[in-house]
Amino acid sequence: MKTYLPKPDEAPGPIQILHLEDSLVDHELIVRSLRAAKLEFLIERVDTLDEFTARIRDGFIDLILADYRLPGFTAIEAWDALATVDPRPPFILVSGAIGEPAAVAAIQSGMSDYVLKDDLGKLAHVVQRALEVHRARLSRENAIRELAASEKRLAGFAEHLQTTIEQERTAIAREIHDDIGGSLAAIKFDLSWMALHHADPETLAHVSTAQDMLQHALGASQRIMMNLRPAILDQGLVAAIQWLASSFERRTAIKTLVRMPSNPIHLDKQVELAAFRTSQEALTNIGKHARCQHVTIDLVDDQQVLTLEVSDDGQGLSDGALENPKAFGIKGMRERAHAVGGWLDVSTNSQRGTSIILSVPLSRTGETFA
After folding, report:
1. Residue 54: how many other CB atoms lie within 10 Å
2. % helix / strand / coil in the chain, to the nearest 5?
3. Strand, helix or coil at 66?
């Protein structure tokens, strides 16, 4: 496909016009009309379809003027010949041999405008308006392309950021396990040795207190490790979400129901992680804001789409909460969904609570249910 590169608005020089016309007299009349309007232009006349298409291939054109009927073809065929040019330059019919229905049909096909040959006084205005509309359309399309490119770069950055965060979480969890966990285990052995080799009641009381604090520290480190990178994910998504739900219920006293497929689920690791983190973030938000009595987590595979829904019967989200620029939890869940080719829906109602729904299309050759 040939790309038509529009001349920048600020670029100097006359308007480059290609005139498709078999009558030299009519061509001269159009030239005089445009000169009378003091337009700065260069115009070239062609009268065959082959000449027209060759000229389009050869170089830059600002605007096309075309008679409707020419020997052996019409302006419609010339317009169709521009199908390989993107975007097409403005195309104005200047004809005396066209009825209003044909003119309307030509405009509906994408041509810019039409002027009757016995009304050339308004041609210069139509030309200027067509160029302005064309430039505005090109500016809009360029803005859309730039916005799409910017959104693509932002999505790529967000995906990279999520990956980096997960890598850092894994590294921190490993350090807690290897360094802090190892040190706490060694202290536990030392305290046990002291409890066995000392009979002084006061000393034993301090040892007992230290053992209690140590047990609390061990539990905290294990909880932090599980939140950073739960090893239970290695046992699959079902086990990880069941652990997440039971931990949430134990911590908050909110009744949590988990409904899962009876068959094992085998998913790509990134999809598993996205579903787990979505569940984790949703439960965190519920614990902080929902004021609910019940939570339900559903995981299903329907029509080769993994669907995870976390719903509560709480107070729902406030008006505008979803659009809050500081609602990073929901934004993060959406970015995770996008990173694995899925999407996130949020449904909220003050009477029925809130539902967070993650949907991820699955390929039977990739991440699939067994």
Report:
1. 11
2. 55, 20, 25
3. strand
Nearest to 70 by CA among 109, 27, 35, 30: 27
Q: Which tens digit of pLDDT belongs to each residue from 125-154?
A: 999 999 999 999 999 999 999 998 888 887
Cα–Cα distances (Å) from 126 to 25, 33, 76, 86, in that order, read 21, 12, 19, 22
Q: Rounded mean pLDDT of the chain?
A: 84
Residue 366 has pLDDT above 70, yes or no: no
Measured distance CA(306)–CA(11) in Å, rounded? 54
Closest CA to 290 of 329, 323, 325, 241: 329
What is residue 342's three-state secondary structure? coil
Tell me, what's the pLDDT at 12? 59
Alpha helices in 10-74 (DSSP H): 24-36, 49-58
The SS3 call for residue 296 is strand
Taking the alpha carbons at both ends of the chain, their separation in whole angstroms is: 45
43 token code pair = 């115009």
For the whole prediction, is pTM greater than 0.85?
no
